[in-house]
Amino acid sequence: MLVKKVNIRSVQLSGVEKKVLLISFLMLTVFGTIVFFQKYVKYASSVEDFSVTLSLIYNLIIFSTYAFFAPLVIKAVDRYPLRKENQLKNFTLHLSFSVLLGLFHMVLCNLILYSIDLASSPIFARFITKYLTSVIHIHLLTYWIIVALVQKKEWFGSKSNTEIDRFVIKENKYTSFVELDQVHWIEALDHYQKLHTENGFFIYKDSMANLVKRLPAEKFKRVHRSTIVNLSQVQGLRKSEKQLSISLSNGHELPVGKSFKSEVRSLFS
Fold first, then answer.
1. CB 250 within 8 A of CB 232
2. For residue 128, what is the DSSP state?
3. 235-253: per-residue pLDDT in tens?
4. Residues 67, 73, 78: CA angle, nearest 5 degrees
5. Which residues lie closer than 8 Å to 150 by C-beta, 6 or more apart?
6. More exposed terminus of the chain, fewer Cβ within 10 Å: N or C?
7. What 8-state DSSP symbol labels residue 262?
């Protein structure tokens, strides 16, 4: 069976990432509007120079612009997913990153606001008196909501969790089928997978984590964060000073990830 070669389209944001970005923006816009009305009720009647327009702009800048960090959060979740085998380590990384990202966003926003005269108080004073007490917890909450949205399939189960017996590739109006034995190895491309075969490659839409669950374990093995190999194509291991690699029957060598080395060595013991 001939394999149709598919050109890789440059994927900047997948459909999932666009949805998460939109949800984040809408959610933070709602938060910003709520905080604005709270301030309006509190200060409009007691502060003479209270500006409704400036207050609204200020709150929308502070809250809504955080949504533009959503693609960065998505990439972080993709790189450090919260799975059982590395949950504590990656949770700590995400917790640290969420705090640092929130603080960076605060400094950036206040520099912008101060430069265009929307914030009269010094940046450091505003940071201590307002941001740490009334804003950062919303950003931390948003960060973890984004994490939950990205990982929802893993945490709550995927609809497409049935075992794969062959790959169904849909490209425009055409549908192609790739048998499992035709695939030499699989390479991760964000939320897409590149299926390498003898005569070309296909782009298959699925996450690497979900694909590992759906492929038969006796035929396919994950050897790297971004690589799955067909065990029937493996010829041996090659060890250099710094890298352990798998040699395939077609001559390709694929690096083995640090966290997968012991499992891969066990295949040849």
1. no
2. I
3. 888 887 778 889 898 888 9
4. 145
5. 16, 20, 73, 74, 77, 78
6. C
7. H
